[in-house]
């Protein structure tokens, strides 16, 4: 059985990823923290379509909660064969005004949780000689952004984690890649979009925001068995020019 864990499945991008993977035959473990009702609604929608999906709660800042979630998924659905590290949080502030708690929470959710989750799912992937890990990153990790030093640092570190883990796992038919989404209207980005709409749209060559489906399509492609040769890569699911 193909079991995919999508963290942050109740959000815009996570929901699109879950729906697309389910359509390709994956059993879905839908993680949420605060968005329980949205996660339940997504699970019900997938189940109505004849697809298997269950929800699992965990605070990704808490290692014990992560470990328990993985155990629960293994018991209910089986070993995880695809991990989509998608959950995110923003705690923006200029660095000289940033509280340690703001710095730490962003690194915990974006980077440390990815470390803990990868560590927990890898043994089953090793024994099954198959696995897919997709880290949802950001062009902010490539370019930086004023007021988001914590977010940029976490995403840049996620690039390095992706490349290093890909080297460690390639011989086991496990692929590890990262995807940088376009600017997508979501719960996390809505306030910024309303405040800086003209500036944001002027930076997008197509003139309009991307969609969660843009990320979901690429995620599904990378999760397919026939595409396992691709590993250690950073993909920009975007139309904006990027620089390193």
Describe this structure in words.
- This protein is an alpha/beta fold and 244 residues long.
- The protein is built from 8 helices and 7 strands; from the N terminus they run E-H-E-H-E-H-E-H-E-H-H-E-H-H-E.
- The radius of gyration is 17 Å and the shape is globular.
- GO terms for molecular function: oxidoreductase activity.
- This is 3-oxoacyl-[acyl-carrier protein] reductase.
Based on the model shown, name its key terms.
244 residues; alpha/beta; Rossmann fold; 7-stranded parallel β-sheet; 8 helices; 7 strands
- Estimated share of beta-strand residues: 5-15%
Largest sheet: 7 strands, parallel
Oligomer category:
single chain
Note the run of SSEs as H and E.
EHEHEHEHEHHEHHE
* Overall pLDDT metric: 92
What is the annotated CATH architecture?
A: 3-Layer(aba) Sandwich
Strand order of the largest sheet: 3-2-1-4-5-6-7
CATH class call? Alpha Beta
Helix amount = 40-55%
Q: Could you give a short description of this structure?
A:
Helices cover about 50% and strands about 15% of the residues.
How are the secondary structure elements laid out?
Blueprint: E1 3-6, H1 12-23, E2 27-32, H2 36-48, E3 53-57, H3 63-76, E4 82-85, H4 100-128, E5 131-136, H5 140-143, H6 149-169, E6 174-180, H7 190-202, H8 212-223, E7 234-236
Parallel strand pairs: 1-2, 1-4, 2-3, 4-5, 5-6, 6-7
């Amino acid at each position: 059985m193909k079991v995919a864990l999508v963290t942050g499945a109740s959000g815009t991008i996570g929901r699109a990823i879950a729906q697309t993977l389910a359509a390709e035959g994956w059993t879905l473990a839908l993680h949420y923290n605060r968005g329980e009702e949205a996660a339940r609604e997504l699970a019900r929608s997938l189940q109505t379509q004849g697809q298997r999906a269950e929800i699992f709660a965990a605070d990704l800042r808490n290692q014990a909660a992560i470990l328990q979630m993985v155990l629960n998924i293994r018991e209910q659905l089986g070993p995880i064969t695809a991990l989509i590290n998608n959950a995110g949080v923003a705690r923006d502030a200029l660095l000289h005004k940033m509280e340690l708690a703001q710095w730490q929470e962003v690194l915990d959710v974006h980077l440390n949780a990815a470390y803990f989750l990868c560590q927990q799912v890898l043994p089953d992937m090793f024994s099954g000689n198959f696995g897919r890990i997709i880290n949802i990153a950001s062009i902010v990790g490539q370019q930086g952004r004023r007021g988001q030093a914590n977010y940029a640092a976490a995403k840049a570190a996620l690039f390095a984690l992706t490349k290093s883990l890909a080297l460690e796992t390639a011989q086991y038919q496990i692929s590890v890649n990262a995807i940088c989404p376009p600017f997508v209207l979501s719960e996390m980005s809505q306030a910024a979009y309303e405040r800086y709409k003209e500036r944001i749209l002027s930076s997008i060559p197509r003139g309009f925001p991307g969609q969660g489906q843009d990320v979901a399509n690429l995620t599904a492609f990378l999760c397919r068995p026939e595409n396992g040769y691709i590993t250690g890569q950073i993909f920009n699911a975007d139309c904006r020019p990027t620089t390193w």
